[in-house]
């Protein structure tokens, strides 16, 4: 599958917002959005992490940042995460590479700019392995595994990404604990590894060995 990052449009939108802020604070001809950058090459698209490509995870990371008097990015932070720490970290690294023109009015005003990085795989969605009904061992701690649920971890469940081996068993499981106790995250992994997965024989198309979902907290019904 061809994999690429689609973030150009949202980067341009943020630069356009910067241009509007500059226009509101100064008189004279409007600057083109890219002219706010020191050079266009100073704000290239962030590198999609190799591990994220391997697990074929997608999401949208919304960040916020300020611009210093020297044109460097200041105080970058995640305003709304994608659910995947590896993508959010890459978004922060991406915006930190940007260098803007020194002395922008927005730097003096302390303007905070929002920016979204859209992490999306190009091409037709692959055929993922599906949970085999009833395959997960009953648990007094976990109610079920909900496949393809990308919501961040919380009080009701823990988000996991993983690969499926030739026998349909989860392997190389990575947790997105998001503050949940390490012991609970480890137990969620152990529970998931009792489950088995298989492809729907009725579905054609390119298959992938990647999967994700949430282990739901609560006793099994």
UniProtKB/TrEMBL annotation:
Show which residues constitute the signal peptide: 1-24
Primary localization class, coarse: membrane
Asked whether the keyword Transmembrane helix is assigned, the reply is yes
Database matches in PROSITE patterns: TONB_CTD
Q: What membrane topology does the UniProt entry give? A: Single-pass membrane protein
Q: One Pfam annotation, family name?
A: TonB_C
Gene3D superfamilies (UniProt xref): 3.30.1150.10
Q: Which GO terms describe its cellular component?
A: plasma membrane protein complex
Concerning InterPro entries, the annotation shows: TonB-dependent_transducer, TonB/TolA_C, TonB_C
Q: Which GO terms describe its molecular function?
A: energy transducer activity
Biological process terms in GO annotation: protein transport; transmembrane transport
What family does the Swiss-Prot or TrEMBL record give for this protein?
A: Belongs to the TonB family.
This chain's protein is named TonB family protein
Which organism's genome codes for this protein?
A: Duganella radicis
Question: Subcellular localization, per the record?
Answer: Cell inner membrane
Q: Which UniProt keywords apply?
A: Cell inner membrane, Cell membrane, Membrane, Protein transport, Signal, Transmembrane, Transmembrane helix, Transport
Q: Where is the TonB C-terminal domain?
A: 33-128
């Amino acid at each position: 599958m061809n994999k690429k990052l689609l973030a150009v449009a949202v980067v341009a939108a943020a630069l356009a917002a910067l241009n509007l802020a500059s226009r509101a604070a100064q008189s004279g001809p409007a600057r083109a959005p890219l002219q706010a950058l020191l050079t266009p090459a100073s704000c290239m698209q962030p590198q999609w992490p190799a591990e994220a490509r391997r697990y074929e995870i997608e999401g949208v990371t919304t960040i916020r940042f300020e611009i210093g008097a020297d044109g460097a990015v200041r105080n970058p932070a995640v305003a709304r995460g994608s659910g995947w720490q590896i993508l959010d970290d890459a978004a922060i690294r991406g915006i930190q590479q940007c260098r803007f023109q020194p002395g922008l009015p927005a730097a003096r005003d302390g303007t905070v700019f929002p920016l979204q990085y859209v992490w999306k795989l190009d091409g037709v969605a692959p055929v993922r392995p599906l949970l085999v009904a009833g395959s997960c061992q009953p648990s007094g701690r976990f109610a079920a595994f909900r496949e393809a649920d990308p919501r961040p971890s919380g009080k009701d469940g823990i988000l996991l990404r993983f690969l499926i081996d030739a026998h349909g068993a989860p392997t190389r499981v990575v947790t997105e604990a998001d503050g949940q106790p390490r012991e609970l995250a480890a137990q969620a992994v152990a529970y998931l590894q009792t489950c088995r997965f298989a492809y729907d024989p009725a579905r054609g198309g390119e298959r992938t060995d990647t999967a994700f979902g949430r282990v739901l907290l609560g006793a099994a019904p």
